């Protein structure tokens, strides 16, 4: 297949525990002899974003999470369809009150340094992972972990924890990490010693921030990967990554933009994939509900009515995004599309503001508050690190000014959450996030709290979220997650601007075996599964 292939993620409603039979296909567990001795084919991946850390307690980005999938194993791992199956967990049982999990570990599993895996490694990981940005939410509700013997782990929870099987927490070797327990974030973790299907092997002369080689482990449970190694190389620009895959220097590429949809279209042997994954980026405008104006839901909705999101996204990201409505990515099973969205409607926006006491009293083109005749000026913040936000903010400012609202816009360095925290010196800020296949993890971001970014409060959201955390029924999860999205949409503490697609590419003239991953998830990378790396193989090897 040549040229461009745009594939959307299929909807699934498969009960999680039925997927345990797929374990032998996913290649979980490990009792290997170390890295591949005979080499084998190298699968070369061009990255446009390197890992921000190799330490799972510190890392925050998707590339780092992808690396952890290769070097480590969790108790449960997502298969190619995005459903959980046992990995280090050979089997497990749940007490009658559903508050105690008893997990039996696989026998003979070793870390890449030869140390045997024991239940103490699981206990150490679970007792400390609460501070992790990527995995901390998975620890929510867990009250204790005990080890009756080396192969048995008992996990107790304060409530029914319906998302336990969706928590793909990388199990770390206690022996390696114990010395850093006082500050686990200090450890560089350059060797990434884990039980996973691959082992990190840095090239002596290669800069550690530009290339990472993961060698295949032999005798990995369920079968070794069909390649000898995965080689990730960082490219400073998307065009550089595109040139690498076009020339054959790379076999796959991740993190490209809509420009590459055009430049790579029709290149012989290159298959393009544009997918909305559960982890696809969501762009949003946050409202500070602590401010006098945005304490009122009508004011927040008025801004949505006067925001031309279609024009905004067309100017900032072209073909690589779609207009947003709710906080979940359209690639997630639990994504919910509201039935009557508030589309661009300046007249409705002006009517809402008039009802709140704002009007152009002196006919100068600017809205003033009738009570004190002060002009309506909104303080907007964006981060210089977000390429899309400067264009989006310009469009938003134009839309607002057309309506008579002045914008005081400031672009800041660093994280927008640090600038627009729980304080009242801002009105709006643009930000983005990546969600998770775990609906409870994604929904937790919007839980009302005095320390939250927006300061929004909702008793109905809190109660529905608690119900979500306690169910493991896929259909029920989707229903509750949909209700949570509707609640946030109605109250509008965030205006969801759009969803940014994951644009990836692979040399399908050289590689095969990845099709089953693509068909079920809509993408190859960033799907929360190691299936791609286990199943991809050279075309010539498949033909033999």
What does this structure look like?
This protein is an alpha+beta fold and 544 residues long. The protein has 2 domains: 3-275 and 502-543, 3-Layer(aba) Sandwich (D-Maltodextrin-Binding Protein, domain 2), CATH 3.40.190; 281-500, Dipeptide-binding Protein, domain 3. The protein is 26% helix and 22% strand. Strands 1-13-22-12-2-11-10-9 form an 8-stranded mixed sheet, with helices on both faces. Strand 5 (89-94) and strand 6 (100-105) form a beta hairpin. The radius of gyration is 24 Å and the shape is globular. The two termini are 20 Å apart. The model is unreliable at 1-27 and 29-37 (pLDDT under 50).
What is the element layout, followed by pairings?
Elements lengths: L2 E3 L17 H4 L15 E6 L14 H10 L4 E3 L5 E3 L2 E6 L5 E6 L13 H10 L13 E8 L2 E6 L16 H4 L20 E3 L10 E6 L12 E6 L3 H10 L4 E5 L1 H6 L6 E6 L5 E7 L9 H9 L3 H8 L4 E3 L22 H10 L2 E2 L8 E2 L7 E7 L3 H17 L2 E7 L3 H4 L8 E7 L4 H6 L14 H11 L4 H18 L2 E7 L1 E6 L3 E2 L2 H7 L9 H5 L1 E2 H5 L1
Helix pairs in contact: 7-9, 8-10, 13-14
- Unreliable residue runs: 1-27, 29-37
Q: Based on CA inertia axes, which overall geometry fits?
A: globular
Q: Quick one: CATH class of the largest domain?
A: Alpha Beta
Give Rg in angstroms.
24 Å
Query: Can you identify the CATH superfamily of the largest domain?
Result: Periplasmic binding protein-like II
Compute the number of helices. 17
Q: What name does the CATH topology of the largest domain carry?
A: D-Maltodextrin-Binding Protein, domain 2
Total domains: 2
Helix share bin:
25-40%
Query: Roughly how many Å apart are the termini?
Result: 20 Å
